[in-house]
Structures are given as C-alpha cells and as structure tokens.
Specification:
Layout lengths: L1 H13 L2 H26 L4 H11 L4 H10 L5 H17 L5 H23 L20 H19 L5 H24 L5 H36 L1
Helix pairs in contact: 2-9, 4-8, 5-6, 6-7, 7-8, 7-9, 8-9
Amino acid sequence: MSGAKQNLQKRIRSLSAKQLVIVLLFLSCLIVFLLIMIDMVIRDENSLDQFAFKKISGIISASLTRFMTIITFFGSFNFLFPAYILLIIYDLYIKDKKLFLYILCIGLSSTGLLFLLKFLFKRIRPSDPLLHAVNGFSFPSGHSFSGFTFYGILVYIIWNDTNLAKASKWLFSILLFIIACIIAFSRVYLHVHFASDVIAGFCLAVISLTVAYWILKTITDRQLSQVEIQA
C-alpha cells in the first residue's frame, strides 16, 4: 500500500503546473457535470434554472433578442459543420497534415456523445422559447457543448500551430472564449435551454477536449520517442 502511495506521489510531483491545471479543470468539470445530471436533470431540482430565467427576464428587449438570435447561429450545426470542413481543409493542405484527423475525430465523437446524452435523458426544453421551431431535447445544450468544443480547438491551434506572439495568442484565445460564452448565454436568454443545460454543455466540452488533448499528447510523445530512438 505504501509503495503504491509513493508511486502516486512521484507521479503528482512529475506533473508540470500546466498539466496539473488541466487535471484539476477536468475533475472540476466532471464533478459539476455529474451534480447537474443527478440533481437538476434526474431529480428535477430547478432552483438554479428558475433563478437564471428570473434574472434574464429583466434585460429582455427586442434589440437584444435580435442580437442573441444572430449570435446563437455561430454555435449551430449550420455554421459549425462548414466551419469544421474549412478547418480540416486548412490543416490538411496548409498546416499540420495529421492534425486534421484529430479534428475530424473530435467533431464526430463529440456529436455522437451529444446525441447519446440527449437520447438517454430526454429532458424537455423550456416551455416559453423566444425562438420558434426548436426541436430536440434540452440536456445538454448542443450549442454550448459544440461551441466550446469548436472554439476550444481553435484555441489549441492558435497556441500550437501558429507563430503569433504570445500576447496575440492570449488575445485571440480570450476573444474566442468570450464568443463561446455569449453563444451559451444566448441559449438561456432565448429560453431554448435551461442554465443547467448550458453549464453542463461547457463542462462536457472541457471533459472531451481534455481527453482529446491527452490522447493527442500521448501519440505525439510516442512519435517523438520513436524518432529519438531511430536517430
């Protein structure tokens, strides 16, 4: 038992600060997602959702509704599908010829996971939407999950596949995160999702991106090790 504990302590010490932050973020999002799933979806505890709707009701206006209707498009399938195609073409023909495979896998697996969860939980959407013809189930928010996933991929590319200055990388990363947050907020504002759906979508995006990051890092490290051995 003590030997296993010592090995665990060695592994923890060997983690860099960046990796430790990623692990903590992953665990935090996993816990929050499970809490939402159990308390707010399965047990139907809706105090947070009602509180969010109550606060949002005070800022609803015709102009803001038009803006939210526009911004929510950038988290929709009609926008993200061609955006993924362009991103894959960019990485396939211009930049990293291997990264496009990971982007494709993340896009397909995240879509499959999203529809699986919606099918399993079948949570009904809010009854008073500001948008019409919104179909499907509510949990988790597809716009939130897909938006944070896609813009998270863009952040990864900015930091690992561009020659931008560090300040520019931070600037673009923050802007992309803000865009994803506004898209997520628009779903609650438009009453097509509960706040818990949107938070769960964000958590699920972080979880899936973290898993994808570790897989990509493991594959990359193995390839570098093989190159070093051959050299």
